[in-house]
Amino acid sequence: MPRPTNILLASALLALTAMRAPAQTLAPDYVFAHGLSNSCETFFGSNGTNGVCTTADPSTLVARIKSGANAAVNVSGRTIETKAIGVADQAQQLAQDLVSERPKIIVGHSQGVIRSRYALQVLKGQTRGVRGLISISGPNGGAPIVTNAPAFARRVLSDLTTSGLLQVAVNAQPAYNTMASIANALREKSLPFFYDAINSPQNAFDAIMRAANVNITDPGFTDLAPGSALLTQLSNQSCRWTFNLGTTNQFTYICSPTDGPKLDASVAVASIRGKNNLLFGGLLNADKKPLLDTANAAIRAYSYTMQAPCRLSFNLYRAACDSMEATWRLLSVTENVEQAFERDIIGAEGASAGDGVVPLWSQSVHGSSPYIGGTPVTSPDGTQNFDIDSASHGGENAILGKIDTFYKVRQIQEAMGMTVSR
């Protein structure tokens, strides 16, 4: 039988050891899922070996995440074909990185969010250890641009043609007009859409699609359309319009949960949303619209006034005249483009809402799909969204390249209770 003194000494040593030992916390692995037409280079800055990325350039989101106390965190990502195959098949490849029992956080961008959700909701038997999902600009409720982009692009090209803006650029002398210089540069690079647009917006749009290697009927695109079969399956809800007779006398869009695939309650979910996009975040914001209208009217009036002097100047003022005419025509077209963009791409929230590709409401995982399970992470403002201003959709040069995105990721990680011991 041990002496009481020895027992007391052993207890004191155990207490001292416990005081010195760091708190036991989870050190998560990070798995990155890139978006449509991107690769793991979007997150890592380089495409790794055979499309598998593990190390990152210093300025990337991955490198920032691995800084400081997170230096030892494991990171992984792989390049996946995102257009020719649908999201369900893409998720099978992503699941290969989700088989270990180690705690991990998935960071998805754009289509990568939907791929991740499919893996976690539908392929549960193939995934393990996932404790968190961070959605960055994810089209959780769909991206209207998928279905409306062709009509929108043709409308823009038609406006450019009708306005005569393209003709101004083509007819102007390169020595005097910047737009003509751009036109010549495009012609030299064998990009015919600039000239085709003058005669046929349809031909121009087709040329743009070919140059971008885009086929809008590819399953990777169509899966992201609002109301697609895949998004309907993942949303775990059934929605319909109903008329409230005798109360509000209005149609209401009502959604109710279905018995579809859900996220496990152990998966914490956070949405990083890009808003006030750079595409329409400048003069086209509502508070700047009067300034735009005034400038447009002034430039147009001045242009009309200068028509006669321009004709009689024998090219002495050709550069100024051409630039003035092109400017007011461009402003007119821009106003039309904004209206079409708001109607067909972003919707009622306004052209500057969202990130220029995905509407703000759609970027919220639980905001667009409240019945999918999981555990929402609450942001400091009390919502489930972590918003970033002036963020365009893109890749490493847009929302993924902003330092604020890194701060949001770190903030979310800590809110998930997965802080690495220092």
Automatic annotation (TrEMBL):
Domain of life the protein comes from: Bacteria
UniProt keyword terms in alphabetical order: Hydrolase, Signal
Gene Ontology molecular-function annotations: hydrolase activity
InterPro entries, A to Z: AB_hydrolase_fold
Leader sequence segment: 1-23
Name under which the protein is recorded: Triacylglycerol esterase/lipase EstA (Alpha/beta hydrolase family)
Taxonomic lineage: Bacteria, Thermotogati, Deinococcota, Deinococci, Deinococcales
